[in-house]
Write a structure and sequence with these properties.
5 helices, Herpes Virus-1, about 270 residues, four-stranded mixed beta sheet, alpha+beta, about 35% strand, single chain
Length: about 270
Amino acid sequence: MLFSNDPSYPAVQCIHHCVIVRLHEFELAATSVVEVKQPAQEQFLAKVNLPFSLEIGKFDSSGLDSHHLTLYSTSYFPCLFVVCRQMSADKVKVLVNEPWQKFIEIFTTEEKILPNMQIYAKEDVHLSKPFLIQCPISQLPRLTYAFVTFHIRTDVECIRDEEPAAIITILHIPDRYCNAPATTLCQYLKFKGGRVLNLKPLYSQEKNESTDEDDSMRRFLKEGNVSCIICWNLPTTHVLLPCRHACLCANCFKRVENCPICRSRVISFFVI
């Protein structure tokens, strides 16, 4: 391209043509896009003691007319344990956001306000008590939540407005249209003063094998026996948001901008 065998082709023109091409190839185009790196913001959390917990046990589908699900309830305060079947999402939303006085009246009045509601027990303090819940067999795709359970403190006159007084748990059970195992879909923590928190799980990798996700997370929070996913040396201390992966130590966290597990951008974080 630099020289031509044709004597009539001007050499200067060839060189000039070459210069033009090279400039066009390497010259940077102007742009208004500016990359700004924003460091993740730390979220400072307030400690909340959960008054109840609920674990899912065996799902028995051997019955022809009905199935059964075993739930294990733990309560650190006197409580009312209530189960509602086939509750719509809109009804749950309204109920969760009710003022406390109206909320508690729904479960204490003699009038049955909620359909398919059953009060299973009015219990004192107990650890991992089993409850056998009957599950109706659905012949059509489910348009409502299979189960919504309520743990409600019965000693609320002794607590302050900023203390948790109830936990609402939404459960899925397998059916012919969705055979995913029975699991917790979401939980809401309701305070006496009306505040509501959506309880969300953390995702972590455990050194020791476990099939129970709840037990695994409790050991993680209590013992800190999960190593950083990058260095595999220091314990995990940082939970990344919004993905909620608990996977990094303090040293490795300083060197990443994206979650090493799901590759999502780390917007904020909190320290365990």
